[in-house]
Design goal:
Largest sheet: 5 strands, mixed
Structural class: alpha+beta
Radius of gyration: 34 Å
Low-confidence stretches: 666-670
Length: 670
């Protein structure tokens, strides 16, 4: 209270001095002192905005930059995204005028990325943060590296990559300490590092950083200018004790955990941060679980779930219920956690599929860029023609008889050129816009493809894994076992759909890398048949007829098997009786291996035999599949120096022929 009264008196005193001061530099200096005095309070907004107005009035771009940076911090802290976006764009515009990227520019951009992360736009946040981090490295901007390093650390925490997160965060922490960074900032980075280290079970590192955190909190306590900073100190001190509780609970040391629990209780009433309160309650619940005080543990975990019913919180509640002996309630809680996790993954998948659809529009933009380039070349040719015309005009002016004709001809060409030049300027402007859009789309496409495996496949694998656990624990005849099988089957179909879309996108953009090595061809074929044999219908015989058991082929094993599995898989869909046969022969005369996949199924109608290799073309709309398999097979076969084709002469079902070159260099890397 005394600090708050002192702050009010100091604010009034500085306000009086400001009213009497006319010197612009002095006024800005006083306004910045008022901003520092009222940090983390609503009053600070008025002083920051007044600082910006004063700076603009006196054309002081550095001070305006300072004000924009602090406005971004204010609106980030008060979760006002629209205002944060607006002032971040203002900072970006000012940096272009100044011709440099200041520390305040990088700070506001980092806060914008973090805000995007909290509202679920992870891809956009990651893309922007990576680009700015590289830019800061190139410009050797210490503050930029610190701000964006912390942001990338937070992004990796959110996607479960805590080891990578710690690397980024430690780099930011080291640079903060080297440059005598502000204590609250150091405390914030330390909190993130400790959180990840506890998840990674790096207990020695976590303990060292908690001690370092409390040492910085002691420094902060000696200089608390206002109630806002006092609340910040209390929340962070409580969080540091919660870290200790979590650490000793994981180590199984209940006595040490209890000591820190007692120390934390004096700060419980000062919590004003949702994350701190949630983490503290999770740590308390874990402590009561460790000490077998299940009633208290359940009470605390229910309070934590009211703040954030994340899968992690629900899992801890399930563990408490299980240890208590309430297996039924524990199973229900585990199920709810799984359903919530699945719901989040489905939402992420739908959003990312929409982005993937937008990325495919890049091809059209590239075509437009090429057309504009042709127009530019035509214009260059006309400019060259004009130069020759001017030279001829100079020569013909000497000859008086032809002077008038040359003059009229040149003037006409001049008029046409001006008209064409105006059209060119307009085309060049459109070209630059289209090129920028194309480059941005290509960059987003590359980033999206690099993150797609983690963002979609990992959650789907988690769904399948949990479903398999439920399947093991469920008895035959139980209705839940059928539901579990539905989850696993549809998750596999969803994963295959994503893989097909990713494969064809990468192959078309020539970003798909092939790794060639010497492989036993018969073994590769048998592995492909093993992968597809579970799809074979009862009563159908799966055959393999190799020309040689010992033939060695220089190939990419995985991509070769992908083609064979797709061809055999297609045969299993349409063959209800008879056989499916995979065979290969070695044609050294033509330097190729010829694979055949023959079935006794329904065959392919003559009117569809030429269309089946088109994308999304399906022989039967009621058979599961994306219609991309044969398109992918043909693209991969072309990379192998061969082709995939339908044997139209075979009438006993369907027969596909796949050829593979024997002369692929060992070093070839596509």
């Amino acid at each position: 209270m005394a600090n708050e009264d002192s702050m009010v008196q100091s604010e009034d005193s500085l306000s009086n001095v400001l009213a009497k001061t006319t010197d612009p530099a002095k006024r800005i200096e006083i306004l910045q002192e008022l901003c520092a005095l009222t940090t983390n309070t609503p009053a600070t907004l008025k002083w920051i905005q007044q600082t910006r107005l004063e700076a603009r009035k006196n054309n002081s771009r550095e001070n305006e930059d300072w004000a924009l940076g602090h406005l971004a911090v204010y609106f980030y802290n008060f979760e006002m995204l629209d205002s944060l976006i607006y002032y971040t764009s203002q900072s970006d515009s000012l940096s272009k005028v100044m011709g440099k990227h200041s520390s305040y520019y990088y700070g506001s951009q980092a806060l914008l990325c973090q805000n995007l992360l909290w509202i679920g736009q992870r891809e956009k946040a990651s893309d922007t943060a990576i680009r700015l981090f590289k830019q800061a490295k190139e410009e050797n901007s210490t503050n930029g590296i610190i701000n964006l390093g912390e942001t990338l650390g937070l992004i990796n925490q959110q996607i479960g990559q805590d080891s990578i997160a710690v690397t980024y965060l430690k780099e930011s922490l080291d640079m903060l300490i080297e440059t005598s960074g502000k204590v609250p900032y150091i405390i914030r980075v330390l909190n993130s590092i400790i959180d990840s280290e506890l998840k990674l079970k790096r207990f020695d590192d976590a303990r060292k950083h908690i001690e370092e955190l409390q040492a910085h909190l002691d420094k902060m306590k000696k200089n608390i200018p206002n109630s806002g900073m006092s609340q910040l100190y209390s929340s962070n001190y409580l969080l540091s004790e919660a870290f200790y509780i979590n650490l000793f609970v994981q180590l199984g040391n209940a006595d040490e955990a209890k000591k820190h629990l007692l120390m934390a209780q004096s700060y419980e009433n000062d919590i004003n941060d949702g994350y701190v309160e949630h983490f503290y309650k999770l740590s308390l619940a874990a402590y009561y679980k460790l000490t077998k005080q299940y009633a208290q543990a359940l009470n605390i975990i229910n309070q934590a779930m009211e703040l954030n019913d994340s899968p992690e919180t629900m899992k801890l509640k399930a563990e408490i219920l299980f240890d208590k002996g309430d297996s039924r309630e524990a199973a229900i809680q585990y199920r709810d956690a799984l359903e919530q996790n699945e719901s989040q993954n489905v939402e992420t998948f739908i959003r990312q599929i929409s982005e993937l659809r937008a990325i495919h529009d890049t091809n059209q933009l590239e075509l437009e860029v090429k057309e504009l380039r042709v127009k530019e070349l035509e214009l260059e040719a006309k400019q060259q023609q004009l130069k020759w015309s001017i030279a001829l005009t100079s020569l013909f002016l000497i000859i008086l008889i032809l002077g008038t004709f040359v003059f009229i001809h040149t003037r006409r060409l001049n008029n046409e050129l001006k008209k064409d030049k105006r059209a060119l300027l307009k085309s060049e402007k459109e070209l630059r816009i289209a090129r920028d859009h194309a480059e941005e789309s290509d960059r987003l496409k590359s980033l999206f493809l690099s993150n797609m495996s983690h963002e979609i496949r990992t959650p789907l694998n988690a769904i399948v894994g949990f479903a398999q656990l439920l399947d093991i624990e469920t008895e035959e005849g139980d209705e839940r076992k059928e539901f579990t099988k539905v989850i696993m089957d549809n998750s596999a179909l969803l994963l295959n759909l994503v893989n097909d879309i990713l494969d064809i996108s990468r192959l078309e953009s020539e970003r798909y890398r092939f790794s060639f090595a010497e492989e036993n061809l018969a073994e590769c074929c048998r592995a492909a048949l093993t992968s597809a044999e579970h799809r074979v219908k009862p009563g159908v015989e799966l055959r393999f007829s190799p020309e040689s058991e010992d033939f060695i082929l220089n190939t990419d094993k995985l991509r070769l098997q992908q083609v064979l599995i797709n061809l055999v898989g297609n045969a299993t869909k349409f063959t209800k009786q008879g056989f499916i046969e995979l065979a290969f022969t070695i044609d050294k005369k033509n330097d190729l291996v010829r694979f055949t996949v023959t079935d006794t199924g329904c065959g392919i109608p003559a009117d569809k035999q030429d269309a089946i290799f088109e994308r999304f073309e399906k022989l039967n709309e009621y058979v599961q599949g994306t219609g991309l398999g044969l398109s992918i097979c043909r693209i991969i076969a072309e990379r192998f120096g061969g082709d995939v084709m339908l044997d139209k002469k075979y009438t006993g079902g369907a027969r596909f022929i796949f050829t593979h070159s024997l002369n692929i260099s060992q070093e070839k890397d596509i």
